[in-house]
Every structure is written in C-alpha cells, then in structure tokens.
Amino acid sequence: MKLSSKGRYAVMAMADLALHSSAKPVSLSEIADRQEISLSYLEQLFGRLRRNSLVRSVRGPGGGYLLAREAKAMRVSDIVIAVDEPLAATRCKPGSATGCHSDHSRCITHDLWEELGNQIHLYLSSVTLADIVNRRVLGTSSVAPGRAVPTLELPRAGAAE
Q1: Structural domains counted in the chain
Q2: pLDDT of 108-151, one tens digit each?
Q3: I need a surface site. Which of 79, 96, 98, 156 has the fewest CB within 10 A?
Q4: Domain span at residue 82?
Q5: Residue 78 lies inside a defined structural domain of this protein
Q6: Residue 143 lies inside a defined structural domain of this protein
Q7: Which residues, 6 or more positions from 111, have their beta carbon under 8 angstroms from its beta carbon?
Q8: Is residue 144 one of the residues assigned to a domain?
Q9: Are 7 and 83 in contact (CB under 8 A)?
Q10: What is the CATH number of the domain that holds 61?
Q11: Higher pLDDT, 146 or 15
C-alpha cells in the first residue's frame, strides 16, 4: 500500500510548520519553498487542515498559519485523515458487510489487507508531529532495511509430513 502525495505532503508541511512557527505565523510560500511543494497544492491542503481544526490562519502583513494545538498533541493520523487520505488497503468499502467481488463476497486475502490498514492507522496514531520534528521516528522498526527477515517454510502441496 502506498500513501498518496496528498497525505505525504500534508504531513511534510505540518512538520515544517511545527518546526518553524515559534509563536509567529508561517506563510505557505515559505513552506512551499523549503519542502518543494506547489503553493497552490498547499493552499488546498491547508484549507482542509483549517476546516478540520488542525491549523489556524492569521491574516494581514506577517500572516500565515499556526498549529491549532501543540505538536506533541497532533497525531500523524489526524493530518492524513483531515486531507481525506484513505487508510484502507482493501478494494472493499471499509465497514461494509459485502466484499469486492462481483457477487459481493470477500476475496481470500480481505482480512489480511484490512488488518494491514488497521496496523497502518495504529502506527500513524502513535506518531506525533513532535516525534517527527525531534527525529524520534527513526529506529522504531525492529527490522532494518537490507536485513534478512526470518521466514516460515510451509510444506509444499502433496509433500509428506
């Protein structure tokens, strides 16, 4: 599953805002320059973030945006959900009793992908903007990239036990 640019950019912009707003508003053009994100795209994202009470805008000269609450109280999942980023890994509609097959049955891997979506949501709920800004996210995984992951060997079909 891949998080789209909408969710990634919203989190990047909010982390930038948390890092650079020490009681003074930060303009979207500053965030756009630092994070290399289109200003018009940021305007759309911040409209959604403002409607979901994650940021507040300050008008006038020296205006811009401030976090609506402290970075340590802002969960990454709040940001992703605020910009309407789906966290589901299945093709099925979340919470639906029917599946994604034409006869409305669930595919054999439905529960696997649904649980993956749940785990992604749990993880994103456990990380705050303060964690990102203070670089406390690195090293939280028990499996480092490039390291072998233990595998479970299953008997082949028709093999004697």
Answers
A1: 1
A2: 888 888 888 888 889 999 999 999 999 998 765 555 555 554 44
A3: 156
A4: 5-133
A5: yes
A6: no
A7: none
A8: no
A9: yes
A10: 1.10.10.10
A11: 15
